[in-house]
Design goal:
- With about 260 residues, the chain is α/β, with parallel strands linked by helices.
- Helix 1 runs parallel beside helix 2.
- It is globular, with a radius of gyration of 18 Å.
- It starts with a strand and ends in a 16-residue tail after the last strand.
- The structure holds NADP nicotinamide-adenine-dinucleotide phosphate (NAP).
- The site of NADP nicotinamide-adenine-dinucleotide phosphate (NAP) has 29 residues, from helix 1 and helix 6.
- NADP nicotinamide-adenine-dinucleotide phosphate (NAP) binds next to helix 1 and helix 6.
Length: about 260
């Protein structure tokens, strides 16, 4: 049976580059986002790069709509999904006091709700299938609060803590699936524009140091190939490392609820 990699947010940035990289490895891709033209461009680019063996299935869904989360999942669940990457997400550089509440609502739905629901659905059906893995894209801002991006960081803390906990749960249960957190730092994508509500975001002016999408996806692939639960960029040095869990975890069984 053909195996597939699902990548949400595959129309731009890290997800777009990741789709190309998995296709180069001969993986079949299910590419999810809202923008049809960009997904078509991805499909053409992959075909043109001589990855004829890779099948690219395009799925257009707005993942801030809960019904779309279930609709997308139901439309692919009969396929052999070897890897699921929850990458779609966006940020908002703004104080909490001044935040646009509609944007905040959508950020919570996409960065938190969609990640939790897709993870739960995927684990439920695939946890005991050989070589499966779930990668949730958090951020280095999911391990350190960045001033002026408090709400965004909190959504990424959710993704990181949820995925670390899920990874521990899967390994305690002896499941075949691995769950992993990817935590990049500044990467030159469309993220800066969306997070600042502009169209001319300049990574050179804003950061000076940042990674390209190709570099970020090099890191993602290292995480994919490893047995570690976390791949994280150091915000000071910009070095990438594979890591063990970072969130505190209850170690004493005697302190847990008794059922
Ligand atoms: P990007 O270039 O803006 O890509 C975001 C992707 O998410 C696009 O494909 C976009 O596609 C999709 N998306 C946005 N809203 C969506 C929705 N409502 N429904 C479905 N898809 C939606 O940004 P990126 O930097 O590659 O972001 C990828 C992930 O990396 C995000 O989770 C982000 O938080 C994380 N990250 C980024 C950085 C960075 O500096 N770039 C750093 C750390 C973590 P459509 O617009 O076509 O729907």
């Amino acid at each position: 049976m053909k195996k597939y990699v699902v990548i949400t947010g595959a129309s731009s940035g890290i997800g777009y580059e990741a789709a190309k990289r998995f296709a180069q490895r001969g993986k079949n891709i299910i590419a999810v986002a809202r923008t049809k033209e960009k997904l078509e461009k991805l499909k053409t680019e992959i075909a043109g790069a001589g990855n004829a063996s890779a099948e690219i299935i395009i799925k257009m869904y707005d993942l801030t709509e809960k019904e779309n989360i279930y609709a997308l999942y139901n439309s692919v669940k009969e396929l052999d999904i070897e890897t699921w990457i929850n990458n779609a997400g966006f940020g908002d550089y703004c104080s909490v006091e001044n935040q646009n509440l509609a944007k905040l609502e959508d950020m919570l739905k996409l960065n938190v709700e969609a990640v939790a629901l897709f993870s739960a659905l995927y684990v439920r059906d695939f946890a005991n299938k050989e070589n499966t893995q779930l990668i949730n894209v958090s951020s280095v801002g999911g391990y350190t609060i960045v001033p002026s991006a408090v709400s965004y960081c909190a959504t990424k803390f959710f993704a990181a803590a949820f995925t670390e906990g899920l990874s521990r749960e899967l390994s305690a249960a002896g499941a075949k699936m691995q769950a992993k957190v990817f935590a990049p730092a500044a990467t030159k994508t469309n993220f800066g524009n969306i997070a600042n509500d502009i169209t001319n975001y300049d990574y050179n002016k804003a950061f000076g140091t940042y990674h390209s999408c190709a570099q970020a996806v090099d890191f993602l692939m290292q995480l994919y190939e490893s047995d570690k639960p976390l791949g994280i960029v150091n915000r000071e040095t910009f070095e990438f490392s594979l890591s063990d869990y970072r969130f505190p975890y209850v170690q004493k069984p005697q302190t847990l609820q008794k059922v």
